[in-house]
Each structure stands twice: as C-alpha cells, then as structure tokens.
Amino acid sequence: MKLKHLFLSGLLLLGAAACNDDNDTPVFPEEPVYDMSGFAKGADVSWLTQMEAAGIRFYDADGRDTECMTLLRDLGFNAIRLRVWVNPEDGWCNRDDVLAKAWRAHQLGYRLMIDFHYSDTWTDPSAQFKPAAWQGLTLDELHAAIRTHTQDVLNALKTQGITPEWVQVGNENGPGMLWDTDQALSGATYDVQSDGITYPANPTNFAAFVTTGSRAVKEVFPDTKVIVHLQSGDDNDLYHWIFDLLEENGAEYDVIGMSLYPDADNWQTMLDDCVSNMQDVSSHYGKEVMVCETGMNWDEADASLAYLTELLARCQELPACLGVFYWEPQCYAGWNGYFKGAFDDSGRPTIALDAFKD
C-alpha cells in the first residue's frame, strides 16, 4: 500500500508540473515544425532499403540510432529522389521497392523526384542499355514500353496518394538512351563504342523517346515537371550540343537537370562553370534548371561543406534554379564502393550536411 501511495503521489506531482498556472491543461513539448516548401534541398536515397536489409544503421550527431529519412529531414532536407529500374536482377529499385521508399518519404512530408533509368541497371555516360525485356522490340513497341513502364510506376504512386513534383525521363543522357546496334532503333546521340560494339547515332529517336516519356508523365500528373538530366554540369558545350539536338527534334520537357561531382582541389572552378552553365542554358532554352546529383568524398568534409554552402547559396540566387540534390548522402564505410556519401565511418552525418540546415 505504501508503494502504491508513493506512485500515485508521484503521478500527481508530474501532472501538476505539466499544467500551467492559469488552468489544468497539460503542457506538452511542441513537435518540431518542418517547412518542406520552397527551394528543393534534396537527397537521393535509392540505396536506403538495400542498406537497411544489410543491417546498416544511421545515427545522429549524438550517436542516437535514427531512421535515415527522419535524420535527413532534421538536417534540413525537404525532398527525396528515387531511381527506378525496370526489372533489376536483385529487385532493388524496382517498382515495389520505389513505392515502399516513396511512401516513407511521403509520410514525413517530403517532396518527391522519380528518376526513370529505362534499364534494368545503371544508366550513365558509359551505359544506356535497354531492359532485357525490351530487346528486339520494334520502334513503336519501344515507345509503348516507355509509356507503359512510366505510367505503371506513376499510377501506383497515384493510388497511394503520392504526387511526384519532378520526374526524370532518363538518367545522365549525354550519350542518349536505349542504345541499339540497329540505327533505326537506337537512341544514341553519337556513334557509341562499348566493349567493341557500335551503337549508332539517332538523335531523332532520342528526342522522340524523351517526348514519349514526358507525355506519359503528363497524362498521369499534368503539373509534374519533366526533367532531362545530363552529366558534367560544368560542361557548357555538352549542354548546348544535347539540348540543341532535342530542340531541333521537337523534344518535350520542362527542366534541364545536371550532375556535378567536384573534388576538394577543383570545386570552386567547377562550381563557377556550373553556375555559368545554368545561367546560360536557362536563358538560351527558356527552361528551369536543377542540380539533380552532387557529392564529394566523405573524408573531405570541410571542403564539401564550403562547396555545398556556396552551391546552395548561388543556386538559390538564380530564379530559374529549382533545387540541389545530394546523391546517396547516407552512404558510409565504402558502401557498394561509393565514397562520396556524407556520413562518417561511425554512421553519423559529417559537417558537410550542415550546408542544408539553413
């Protein structure tokens, strides 16, 4: 009885402490308010579910085990980017995996970018290979496959009440997309040589593939902005070459996306060139721009902080720039051979990500 009395007395004291002086209404700590609007400060976390399945954990600056997207939101991020592969061998980044991550991001209030690779694996300047199931399709069938795959993923998101703000129709497409050894089917922008095989140029197809993807997006989400994304955001000649090809062939898109991956010893020059490129192409083509991917080696955190701080500041000064996305910032300890994440070997964010807080 005595223990019970002490317990009840303690509860009464706690209740009194939680009330204000004017009434008996309990006073609870306020939940933090996150402003997820405005300039996009994004993170591509496409590896996240795969990392979690491997037992990778994430920790805040004080060492508290914290869910990754929650931690990134606390660090100032307001948008998430997720890549989509058609039929990846291990299942990661397929439609269902993307839906699972998108739902988590949506629950936390994030805005969303979807990045279609139109492949079963990575597409980038060295590889723009068709999905295995699309090999041997006619040109009309390829267009149908682009439309079906794009809308399959987007309609699944729509069913969950999720509307992506941006969609990439391809990834780092400097060399085009959906390469084929038959020129009539190829979407290469030049005669690509890969492993002794030639994939001939057909910029007309490339532009048409972009338009098919763009129209597929707009049929599901009319207000979503469609991005064409290239590598090497500091290379103005590359951007004029590719976007001239797209303009000449009537491609439909809204935003010019860029990647930029500097090192500690060259970031200032690359940043200057990238900002100049953004100013030029946004004016020349009448398009908005965005840094869809960036990063620097995790162990160059001081330089990375300086770079990211200036990148974010200068991009926000450009009326045409919509945002900046860090590529896989949650990666650490050389995950999948990638060292440009922004977490240290203990699984905590480095000071580089302080740039996103303001």
Automatic annotation (TrEMBL):
It is an enzyme of class 3 (hydrolase). GO terms for biological process: pectin catabolic process. PROSITE patterns: PROKAR_LIPOPROTEIN (PS51257). Its EC number is 3.2.1.89. GO terms for molecular function: arabinogalactan endo-1,4-beta-galactosidase activity; glucosidase activity. Residues 1-20 form the signal peptide. Belongs to the glycosyl hydrolase 53 family. PANTHER family: ARABINOGALACTAN ENDO-BETA-1,4-GALACTANASE A (PTHR34983:SF1). This is Arabinogalactan endo-beta-1,4-galactanase.
